Amino acid sequence: MRPSSLKEMNASLPQLQLTSLQRSCIALGGVSERLLSDRALGVRLHQLASRLPGPLPPDEEEAGSTLSIEEALPLTRGAVASLDFLCETRQLSSLGERVAGGLKSTLETLAGRLGQRLRSRTLHRFRGLYVIIDPLVTGGREPEQIAEQALEGGAAILQLRDKERDKGRSHPLAAAIKSMCDEKDALFIVNDHADLAAAVQAHGLHLGQDDLSVSDARRSLDAGQIVGRSNHLLEEAIESQAQGADYIAVGAMYPTTSKDQPIVGGVSLLRAVKESVDAPVAAIGGITQERVEEVARAGADAVCVISAVGLAANPRDAAEGMVEAMRRAGGRG
User: What is the Cα–Cα distance from 290 to 304, expressed in whole angstroms?
Assistant: First the structure.
């Protein structure tokens, strides 16, 4: 390429970015009204785009009328990237720079709400028996075997909790369990490791009180991946929802040896949390088949177990018995 051609291309790049940004904003305005029923957000996007320097491109709202959430999210991210480029290279006037702040905030609001709508599809399936697969709690069997039998017994959610091994060894196990869950239309959650959850395209990530914040974890995840958080107190549960956790895990329900759980809140804590948060609630800690009905009647959307399935002589039968107990109690088994 001749030097003059390269200069011409570099000179036109800011205008291309600006046009792309404006087109995206107009299209996303239509998405906001159609998918989020928020006309005001769409109008604001259009108004801010029209205040950027240069003529506004032809109306792109019709293009936004056919976009899905999965298509709108990358378009939103692309618009933010164009905006960042224009600001970092100082291609905007002083007025444009002032508009850019409001436009970026509006685009981020749109992305957050689209992501929330996408995650709501996954949360619709968040119910029933939630089995935590821990390679140290298998009774000497392979964790894949426990996962397979738990799913055969009707588990709706599996979580991989691998605290001891490095992620290079955890990755093949996580990928294998994700594949099993996909075959059974079950959800797969990774404990602690946002990068591993992203790598295997898990349905979500589970965090403890001392792990990353929900917002920090989301930086490593796709917009549709849910984030849950463990809580031992009512105040913690309320704070987790305020952070944006998609589901709330609460416990311990009963004394347990599977995890270090110094606080046993019991079903009274579960009821208090259910009354105080809107997110789905999973109960955990010391839950056995004999205790499942009490927990389900107290309002748990999901019942988490570790050793009750992992150490059972027949994990499939143990899972099946718990699923049936939840159904008897009126829970979503």
Answer: 14
Beta-carbon neighbour count of residue 257 at 10 Å? Answer: 10
DSSP 76: H
d(CA 63, CA 53): 23
Dihedral in degrees, nearest 10, Cα atoms 189, 190, 196, 202: 0
The phi, psi pair for 180, rounded to 5°, reads -60, -45
How many angstroms separate the CA atoms of 69 and 35, rounded? Answer: 8
Tell which residue, 219, 227, 135, 124, has the closest CA to residue 176: 135
What is the pLDDT at residue 12? 62
| Tokens 């995650």, located at residue | 119
**Domain extents in the chain:** 3-120, 125-328
**Structure confidence by residue, pLDDT tens digits, 63-84:** 667 889 999 999 999 999 988 9
Tell me the two tokens of residue 116. 């929330």
pLDDT, tens only, 144-196: 999 999 999 999 999 999 988 887 889 999 999 999 999 999 999 999 999 99
Collapsing DSSP to helix, strand or coil, 304 comes out as strand
Token duo for residue 153: 């017994």
* Residue 333 binned pLDDT confidence (cut-offs 50, 70, 90): low
Please tell me whether residue 100 adopts helix, strand or coil conformation. helix
Q: How confident is the model at residue 259 (pLDDT cuts 50, 70, 90)?
A: low
Whole-Å CA distances, 255 to 61, 262, 263, 280: 57, 8, 9, 23
Neighbours of 167 (CB within 10 A): 13
Residue 300 phi/psi, 5-degree rounding, is -65, 130
| Whether the bond into 252 is cis, omega within 30 of 0 | yes
CA distances from 166 to 161, 179, 193 (A): 12, 21, 11
CATH architecture of 125-328: Alpha-Beta Barrel (3.20)
Q: Which amino acid appears at position 21 of this protein?
A: L
The mean pLDDT of 307-325, rounded to a whole number, is 97
Query: What is the DSSP code (8-state) at residue 298?
Result: T
For residue 231, give every residue at least 6 positions away whose Cβ sits within 8 Å of its Cβ, in sequence order, or none: 209, 237, 240, 248, 249, 250, 273
